[in-house]
Design brief:
Distance between the termini: 51 Å
Order of helices and strands: HHEHEEHEHHHHHHHEHEEEHE
Strand order of the largest sheet: 3-2-1-4-5-9-8
Largest sheet: 7 strands, mixed
Radius of gyration: 20 Å
Structural class: alpha/beta
Amino acid sequence: MIRTAETYHVSVLLNESVDGLAIQPDGVYVDVTFGGGGHSREILRRLGDGGRLFGFDQDADAEQNIVNDDRFTFVRSNFRYISNWMRYYGVEQIDGLIADLGVSSHHFDDETRGFSFRFDAPLDMRMNKRAGVTAADVLNDYSEEQLADIFYIYGELKNARRIAAAVVKSRSRQRIETTGQLLDLTNGLFAPMTEKKEVTKLFQALRIEVNHEMEALKEMLADACRLLRSGGRLSIITYHSLEDRIVKNMMRSGNAEGKVEQDFFGRAKTPLHIINNKVITPSDEELQANPRSRSAKLRIAEKTEQ
């Protein structure tokens, strides 16, 4: 199948998330999850001739969707390095940043990457195929205790210790290399009624560990707060509770832990003002067209005067 920007990934909450940026025609914006380029194209449509947009993506496949526009700059990098790259391009402040933290349809549909249990594929799961450990490395090289922690913290799996023990037992006989092998060793560990949901959580946990997603998200958000000029906006789409908690804490308190500092008079000190106290979710029409958007939540915040 020939991959186009449209088949690579269907943009979630497209208009709602870009509306949340309150685009200034001559502003500087960053799309830290470029992917298929859907959000970037909509931002460019609203920018004037003097505006600039930077698109980040660490996956080489995303380069197929680069936008041919003089106002656009593609950065092939993890978004955790946004501060370094903005300095490289001479940008001191930005007017807005958008992030769609969901895994793209392209990754789930690529039979060779190991993101989905629909295919028997090598357990890779790296967003950046050039570096880092694979999911197979994690399963075969981590201790049983480390695996249990990953499954429990990142997958929120209640039987994390049983799963970790099963992995260690299986790898003692043969190295675990494929999604099929991983599925086989989990037989009997999940109730039939919830098996698909639990296996999804297991794959999620491995993907998060392989790509250091939580650490990267915290670093990116902290740098984004520093880069935003007064009145600048963050528009962030999350999909699971772990990343949503980090985004919510950052917007409420200015840090990923959610610790609200107070001034001498007991007033909360936070660099951001939340625009939508109630999260924005996809419409019924969008859910019908793109079922994968069902868990999406959009949060928007604005940089306050410092």
